[in-house]
Predict the structure of Bacterial bifunctional deaminase-reductase C-terminal domain-containing protein.
Amino acid sequence: MRTITAGLFIALDGVVENPQDWHFPYYNDEMGAAVDAQLGTADTLLLGRKTYDSFAGAWPEREAAGGPDADFGRKLGDARKIVVSRSDHTFTWRNSEVLQGDLIAGVTALKQEPGGDIAISGSVSVVRALLGAGLLDELHLLVHPIAVRSGMRLFDDAEAALPLTLLRSTAFRTGVVHLVYGPGHHLEGDYDQAKQHLAHDED
């Protein structure tokens, strides 16, 4: 079964909207390697329409320009790109197609197909839906040491809590922390249990 990973730039207060306005000062070689490992090694990209439009409006030109980001642009261009959209779409970026039918059913079928990893970048509504359906294998959060204080946050209000399991973590020189979460399970406990772990003065 194929693995689905999602990567997001996120502020300390949970904001994920418009990262281009606040995250570039923290982008260094460590973050570049983390992004490439999550996104650049996948053979399929699953993208929301807004994220796709943003990528398609920038990366083909960067690839053609032949600058230092051209290799990454080529990787994205060569990958199969599946766009989650309810409207008709005209594609100019190679290897692009619309996800047919229901999101959850379509992604469930996609996981069963032969192939490599499936990667998501941004596309918050898609990430939320796949987390809720238990279809996301890894959630990569690049947590920036800044509180943006306005904008859409990753997790919206919902009736049920969403437990996750920390798989690994890495602190970068810039203060960004790369956290990788997988599916979790609900824990049980109360104060009576917790108080057993309070520090006690030695007599």
